[in-house]
Amino acid sequence: xxxxxxxxxxxxxxxxxxxxxxxxxxxxxxxxxxxxxxxxxxxxxxxxxxxxxxxxxxxxxxxxxxxxxxxxxxxxxxxxxxxxxxxxxxxxxxxxxxxxxxxxxxxxxxxxxxxxxxxxxxxxxxxxxxxxxxxxxxxxxxxxxxxxxxxxxxxxxxxxxxxxxxxxxxxxxxxxxxxxxxxxxxxxxxxxxxxxxxxxxxxxxxxxxxxxxxxxxxxxxxxxxxxxxxxxxxxxxxxxxxxxxxxxxxxxxxxxxxxxxxxxxxxxxxxxxxxxxxxxxxxxxxxxxxxxxxxxxxxxxxxxxxxxxxxxxxxxxxxxxxxxxxxxxxxxxxxxxxxxxxxxxxxxxxxxxxxxxxxxxxxxxxxxxxxxxxxxxxxxxxxxxxxxxxxxxxxxxxxxxxxxxxxxxxxxxxxxxxxxxxxxxxxxxxxxxxxxxxxxxxxxxxxxxxxxxxxxxxxxxxxxxxxxxxxxxxxxxxxxxxxxxxxxxxxxxxxxxxxxxxxxxxxxxxxxxxx
Length: 515
Fold this sequence. Notes:
The chain has 17 helices and 28 strands. By secondary structure, it is α/β, with parallel strands linked by helices. Among the domains are: 1-205, Rossmann fold (3-Layer(aba) Sandwich); 416-514, GMP Synthetase, Chain A, domain 3 (2-Layer Sandwich), CATH 3.30.300.30. The strands form seven sheets. It has a nine-stranded mixed sheet with strand order 2-1-12-11-13-14-15-16-17, with helices on both faces. Strands 18, 19, 21, 22 and 23 form a five-stranded antiparallel sheet that branches. It has a four-stranded parallel sheet with strand order 4-3-5-8, with helices on both faces. The longest helix is centred in the first third of the chain and has 17 residues, at 43-59. It starts with a helix and ends with a helix. The relative contact order is 0.10.
């Protein structure tokens, strides 16, 4: 497959660093790359600042292959840091700012990160204290709010970066996703795969030289990283960053910055359309609104296209395979609304009976198996690879049909909940719930939600006469370091849970009940 992709030109010898360094000459050094409030960082400025960060990290002992972790919001510092790490041949491991001690500690232990970069405080949370609570013994650098040698500003005072050879097939990032395991899974991507992902999106979204992208999604997620960090230098599309989502502010930025493209989840579209100022806002610049994640209803795609007067479509991908399908220019608008689109680039898929591993007939439901040049190498924990990868195919765990070249995702085989684009492992939440003294048994499922796509619902069997309340369980989970977005927002108390003869909880019936 690697030979095939090279023959087709999908794989080359060009790394992400090569693409960054060529960007000023290719698109113009003064072309804006990132907008963050009052900061307008050009491509030339991105190259210069990322070089200084690379020099500073090298002076702190970071070498090719070392991991540098960071938990930064959508700030320009996050973009500069990511590119500084890559320029050293090191590996970036972004961590979503909403994660707390439990998850952050797990990531730091698994990666063996040498350095962790965090904000001093963000949205009222003390991130420095969170890292300290994990027992991390590496160096902690602080962005915004700190001064001195441990501040991010100190990194920008260094000189020229060292000369490091970065190859296209070197590892570039470790991203984190929740799946059927209780703990997050580290997904390893190479320079090669991520560069191809950026390039393939040009055709997939019909990206143009004058496009401007609004990014409310976290740049620590695969989509946010792709669109907010990689696209500006790789294909010349500027990214306007939002660190905290506010629909009114999003509308204001859309009008002021003349945004042409939004790639996000339904929660962002819904919030903007429902906002009181929507009717009075000039949204005429927007030409594309592409929706991904769980719960993209056809009615929402139709409504988005009509409300914004733009091309609105669905996109399907995952942390392991960033973009597999998307609606394409010229497709029937009804297909844009009712399917997840067509394959992009050199991507391939099979629809497989998960029980037998055999392909099903066209139009019949089965598990999506995907293969392509932007697919992840595998997991940081190689013991997880055998179940997820079969003969070069990635088993997505999603159920779908494929007819006439169009994919339609139906459901998930994986036991995860996608709340506003954030993956929540049901197993992780369940394992913490059953440790509560008032809980004998627990099962966690998704409850559909108009705004967030899905929310977390906990079915609980109490251990005593008085069942715990939702507020009590939420407080308990918070003290265990669980991220806020993973905490159940609905509680169902039961005398017992439905189980199969082998003892497995019948979650299908619980999901149907809350639906």
